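Reminder to self: tokens first, then the designed residues, so the page reads top to bottom the way the pipeline ran.
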């Protein structure tokens, strides 16, 4: 959030008392409903927007009538409104006498409502020329911006009040340049349900996780934010990839998948927001823990397999991850694994269930990349099974299994057909685990099992390697239980 937005928030807090907010809510004709989702957990009501007159020209949320108006002309000025709200209401009604009386009584001409809108904004939206002139004579801020960045001149122009617009321009008003995104819609009613207000996201310096991905706060909870660089707006491939990822994230809902929070598509920069897990990714966990005990490795493998099986069974088309690795698998507070990063690759359908990279020249150097994908050949969902086999191997054997640079290791695996060696003692490999890993990373895609089959086999393995219940397993000390998560 920039300094201007913070300053506006502080100003709103000072000028809008709780008593005025209550009365303003009674005045509003909009349904008093909580914000979509009610915050990160989807529970509870978020801040309520109070509406009067026509909405801001840059407000992405449709409300009121088709032209953004409400039926305020049918209302009389309530006696119990505070001075600021009476000023805005009088400006909305075109009551120049009432406005002047309030100003002479000491009301600040630039008083604002919860959305940062002044009496000049309201009068400009309604085309109340006499009130606009009066406010300007009282030195109203002609370039005041509301929470969406709209000015009185921009509002007057948006609603076709060109007499007011020309008056404001003659007095020196500036019209902010509208930064439209490639996904911007002209009709507010077409704004997607997942759209977030960018002012709700709080960023801090130095919190870039990876290139283009940041850590932010949304309603007090930490979230991951992927930002599309403004330089990519002119790149059709980048925009298509952004829209594709957004479509898949919105569609996929499963306990073993990182959940989609929302997106910013109507403002610059465009962003995708997803849930954040402070326990980090599987790669970091393996780096600290090293080799996992068999029962835990199998439990983790089941989490991964269930998430990927859901993606592969999506209708009408399966979702192929294509970039699975321990860095794209995160741990939640309960120690459960969730798959992240799906939808980040641009794929095109070539025939039947076969896909190919949208840009054949892209060279993938990840050691988890399947051979057919590495060679830019058509592939199917089994590329995720190949990566899964290597991840399962890594959980049981420990890290790293590729001492060489990733580019060289990927070439050895994909072009030379080499595979990591099984170094651990047989006791670390329950029955059928080695065979399952070898089938998963088989160079022939048709040999690799589906995730539905993998889940069945892993359940049997998990049942056979489960530790027998003993008193010291039943009565675990709290800190021991926490360590095993």
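Designed residues (485 positions):
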């Amino acid at each position: 959030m920039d300094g201007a937005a913070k300053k506006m928030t502080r100003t709103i807090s000072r000028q809008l008392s709780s008593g005025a907010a209550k009365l303003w809510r009674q005045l509003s004709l909009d349904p008093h409903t909580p914000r979509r989702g009610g915050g990160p957990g989807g529970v509870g009501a978020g801040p309520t927007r109070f509406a009067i007159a026509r909405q801001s020209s840059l407000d992405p949320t449709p409300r009121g009538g088709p032209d953004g108006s409400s039926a305020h002309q049918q209302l009389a000025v309530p006696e119990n409104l505070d001075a600021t709200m009476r000023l805005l209401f009088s400006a909305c009604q075109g009551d120049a006498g009432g406005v002047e009386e309030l100003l002479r009584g000491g009301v600040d001409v630039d008083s604002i409502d919860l959305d940062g809108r002044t009496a000049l904004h309201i009068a400009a939206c309604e085309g109340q020329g006499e009130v606009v002139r009066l406010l300007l004579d009282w030195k109203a801020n002609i370039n005041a911006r509301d929470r969406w960045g709209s000015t009185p001149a921009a509002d007057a122009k948006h609603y076709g009040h060109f007499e007011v617009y020309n008056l404001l321009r003659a007095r020196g008003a500036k019209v902010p340049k509208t930064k439209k995104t490639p996904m911007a819609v002209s009709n507010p009613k077409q704004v997607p349900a997942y759209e977030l207000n960018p002012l709700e996201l709080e960023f801090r310096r130095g919190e870039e996780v990876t290139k283009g991905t940041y850590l932010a706060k949304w309603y007090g909870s930490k979230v991951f934010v992927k930002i599309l660089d403004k330089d990519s707006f002119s790149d059709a491939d980048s925009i298509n990839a952004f829209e594709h990822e957004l479509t898949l994230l919105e569609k996929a809902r499963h306990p073993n998948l990182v959940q989609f929070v929302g997106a910013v598509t109507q403002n610059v920069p465009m962003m995708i927001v997803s849930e954040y897990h402070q326990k980090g990714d599987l790669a970091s966990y393996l780096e600290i823990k090293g080799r996992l005990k068999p029962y835990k490795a199998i439990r983790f493998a089941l989490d991964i397999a269930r998430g990927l099986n859901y993606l592969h069974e999506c209708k009408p088309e399966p979702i192929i991850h294509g970039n699975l690795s321990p860095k794209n698998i995160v741990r939640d507070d309960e120690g459960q694994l969730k798959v992240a990063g799906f939808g980040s690759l641009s794929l095109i359908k070539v025939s039947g269930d076969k896909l190919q990279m949208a840009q054949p020249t892209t060279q993938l150097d990840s050691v988890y990349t399947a051979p057919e994908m590495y060679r830019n050949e058509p592939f199917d969902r089994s590329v995720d099974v190949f990566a899964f086999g290597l991840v399962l191997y890594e959980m049981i054997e420990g890290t790293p299994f590729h001492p060489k640079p990733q580019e060289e290791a990927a070439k050895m695996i994909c072009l030379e057909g080499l595979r990591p060696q099984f170094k651990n003692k047989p006791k670390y490999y329950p029955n059928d685990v080695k065979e399952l890993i070898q089938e998963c990373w088989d160079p022939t895609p048709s040999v690799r099992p589906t995730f539905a089959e993998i889940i069945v086999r892993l359940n049997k393995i998990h049942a056979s390697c489960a530790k027998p219940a003993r008193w010291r397993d039943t009565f675990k000390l709290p800190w021991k239980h926490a360590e095993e998560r």
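DSSP finds 18 helices and nine strands in the chain.
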